Structure prediction request, 246 residues.
Amino acid sequence: MVKTIIVREKIWGKLKDVALPDSRFHLNFAEVIPDFKGSDVATDRLVEEPFVKSGGYAFVTPDNCLVDLRRRMLLAGKPMVVSTYGIYRGFWLLDPKNVPPGQELFAAWLDGLEHFGQPISLAEIAARGRFDFMVTGASAVSLEGVRFGKGHGFFDLEWGIFTDMGLVDERTPVAAVVHDVQVVSDKLFPSPTDILVDLIVTPSQTFHVKDRAARPRGVNWDLLEPEQIANTPPLQELQKIRGMTK
Prediction:
């Protein structure tokens, strides 16, 4: 854990030179994974990957560095599920059919997502079938695919929810879009809840993770505080689905 914090803070120091300020959190990297210079070039690399070209339905995190990806997916007619900030308002479906031509960029931003998208329950997500791929930002990621977020564990939790519902598994491609300064060569050791990625794209390079370690499965309820469950609607819904509450 100590090394994780050190690596994260070291990357944050470098990220200030290439990050684009967030309208709410500025350069507070403990609260936001920012967009960065060249994220559109990194997205160029990602959309050329076979699993993205062939995939028609994905989960995309709300990170600022993925705005261009969400825009391009809308233009390509590919629907996606996006989490709200902190998962406090659950998940939203962003369907190209509901985005007027010319409004794709606005819809790709979080404010636009909640204007053109619609809230979607876990049951409704499950009814649409498995995700073809998942894409996330990161604070830092190693060449072995070990990904660190802001430190709140939201993506790990989303993965746990979706694996529990059978929407993703070891076969599901998971990609990280980051700046070159966010890729670390250090040997990092994932925690039991860390989600390893298969692909890392930066403005200058594409890294395919070889011999990736196994990912966890399901939600580790013992690690969650009652307040977090109370503030996360999908966790409450999952408990009801699993018969854990009345």
Q: What stands out?
A: The chain is about 35% helix and 15% strand. The CA atoms of residues 240 and 246 lie 7 Å apart. The chain has one domain: 2-221. The two ends are 36 Å apart (CA to CA).
